[in-house]
Design a protein that fits this description.
The protein has 4 helices and no strands. It is mostly helical and about 80 residues long. The chain is elongated. The relative contact order is 0.10. The mean pLDDT is about 80.
Length: about 80
């Protein structure tokens, strides 16, 4: 993801669909924002902020659905074994 997002420079001959896909992954907006900050350019791209916000929201929704404090045990281990 980082390689196609341009962290090490542009890849020659990269197909258009791959650059479009990379612009919606979180690595490219982070790279753009960090490079702007290092050049002391105070303007943030609205596209970059929207993409990162969408990834944060998606991550929070997935985490709230999937995360449990108690471990998820398979059904065969849940039944109490009575020895007598």
């Amino acid at each position: 993801m980082v390689l196609i997002s341009g962290a090490l420079g542009p890849i020659s001959g990269e197909p258009h669909w791959l650059t479009t896909l990379a612009s919606y992954l979180p690595a490219e907006p982070v790279i753009d924002t960090v490079s702007r900050a290092l050049r002391h350019v105070p303007v943030f791209s609205a596209h970059d902020l929207l993409v990162l916000t969408a990834w944060v929201i998606i991550g929070l929704v997935v985490a709230s659905i999937r995360f449990r404090w108690e471990p998820n045990r398979p059904a065969q281990h849940r039944a109490a074994r009575v020895s007598g």
